[in-house]
Amino acid sequence: MKLYANPTSPFVRIVRMVLIEKGLNESVDTAFVDAWADDPAFLDANPAGRVPTLVTDDGARLTEALLILTHLDAVGPKPAVLAGGPAALSAAGVAIGVFDAAVAVIIGRKSAPDFDTGLVGKKRFRTMQEGLRRLDAVFTDSQDFGLPAIAAITALDYLAFRFPNHDWGSLCPKVAAFRDAQGDRPSVRDTVPRG
After folding, report:
1. Is 56 helix (H, G, I), strand (E, B) or coil?
2. What are 31-89's pLDDT values in tens digits?
3. Which strand (E) or helix (H) includes residue 2?
4. What Å distances lie between residue 166 and 33, 74, 160, CA to CA?
């Protein structure tokens, strides 16, 4: 398998974390690309030019993080990352919404220097803040390391990386404590966003 990735993308990170958790990381050739550079090989794999993109051993091109995770659950060892029923998927959705809003701000800033203070920018920051609060409300001390945990850690780390002047952990102290407790876990440690 070949994974087209970027070391800062939170969508890539959840895939990379799952690869490590399932013991599939060694069977994947990871190619770090600049999604804005329109590399021909990358565009051949995904004409939308978005990461992550996974090319399977039989040549299928999977182009969305959750679709890739579905495939990894099918081919990788248990436990399934997408397990846990509606409550788990709901929590994961809140966390993914947090980092999706953050990515929207970063992209919005590329075209509008005042994006943060405009209507859409304010809404995205509200989504990040309220999402962390809601995520913390459903997080438990005995949280399994499935998609809700992976997405929550990814959300918190991505916000700290992109918006370091905010105290994001104060909005979700249970998530922050869980993240700190998992800091040495290879899937967490080896995928921290850098750029």
Report:
1. coil
2. 999 988 989 999 999 999 999 999 999 999 999 999 999 999 999 888 889 988 999 99
3. strand 2-5
4. 29, 38, 7
Which candidate, 37, 20, 26, places its Cα nearest to that of 6?
A: 37
Query: Could you give the number of structural domains in the chain?
Result: 2
Residue that terminates a domain, selected from 25, 41, 75: 75
Q: Is 29 helix (H, G, I), strand (E, B) or coil?
A: strand
Query: Would strands 61-62 and 53-55 be described as parallel, antiparallel, or unpaired?
Result: antiparallel
Helix, strand or coil, per DSSP, at residue 62: strand
B/e letters for 106-144, b = 16+ CB within 10 Å, e = fewer, are: eebeeeeeebeeeeebeebbebbbebbebbbebbeeebe
Copy the structure tokens of residue 23.
């013991």
C-alpha to C-alpha distances, 186 to 39, 64, 172, 182, nearest whole angstrom: 30, 23, 23, 9
Q: Is the pTM of this model over 0.90?
A: yes
Same-domain check for residues 34 and 57: yes
